[in-house]
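Students often ask why we bother encoding 3D structure as a string. The short answer is that it lets us treat folding as translation between two languages. Here is a chain of 387 residues written in the first language.
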Amino acid sequence: MSGLHRSCCWLAGGVAALAVLGMAEAALAQQMPAMPVTVANPVSRKITEMAEFTGRFQAWPSVAITSRVTGYLDKSSFVEGSLVKQGDVLFSIDPRPFQAAVDQAAAQVKIAQTRIDLTKANLARAEELKKSGNVTDATYQSNLQAFQEAAASIDSANAALATAKLDLNFATITAPIAGKISRQLVSRGNLVVANGTAPLTTIVAVDPIYFYFQFDEASYLAYRRASRGKADPSGADEDMKVEIALSDEKTFSHQGTLDYLEPQVDAQTGTVTARAKIANPDGFLTPGLFGRIRIALGEPYDALVVPDVAVGQSSQGRYVTVIVDKKATIRPVEVGPKLGTFRVIKSGLKPEDAVLINGQMRARPGSEVIPQPTKLDVPDPLLPDAN
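And here it is in the second language, the structure alphabet:
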């Protein structure tokens, strides 16, 4: 017998054996006594499809506190790590040199004003004498020039006084923004240099705080289609609510809004940087913390849900087992997202279908079962967990 003939005989025998085995299983299923199984009708819920991303909290703005004048640090007036308000006094530089400069500039203003008064009186007398012809034109012009120079000198003196007062004001360093202040980096008695590169401390804004994350391309397109006509020029829809869970939280308990989208997709990663804004009045959310953000990708729609354990997977796709006339029947379905322990069924089921939710091993296709109905306890709204 040739090798080809032996192979054909082996394949034919294998197919026949499988057919016999299938018939035997069907016959066995028919011969097995009916077993009790648990069934339930799918539940209708309003579903909002969500996407989850990871990211980190960042503070904006963040300010490095430096001095605008050079002098010796006299004292600090804040508690390290505390929350400060805009305008709170942080540091004081020894004000005495700046007060002396103010006093000197004020004296120069008085001198300039006295010179103006004198030259103005001289100019008035010269004008009267000029009318009667008792003064030369050269003398009149000399008095006029002296008055104009005095008027210019007081402008210069007033500018110097304003600068001296500004420096005295800068000797008291206040918080330019509200936020959380870091530790003091320069101690009392040290010389600080105007606009130096070494900061005295830093302040980071904490209310609101921002959460940065990366949109994948598919989710970004879904979001933009859902928010079309509602987003601002940056592409962000501030009416689109977002929810955030910290690394140790099981629920998304922090709410915010999406307020910024990067204007282009990163060609290397295929992602878009996005930012959410979250109220943080107590400062609990700290810059640098890791978190997970959940964002809606479309409008809510009505769908049926069943326990996720009721959904099976075959080479042809997803399916559920439906009990019809006490017999198990395979029903192909189109599934949506998993929400907690439940799975959204987009198509393939009807509200009155009796879906097998427990006892799959006792309900082979075509076998007779004893259905025991139960009612599904599905929360409303139905949302995914943060795990």
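Translate back mentally: The chain is about 30% helix and 35% strand. Keep this in mind for the problem set.
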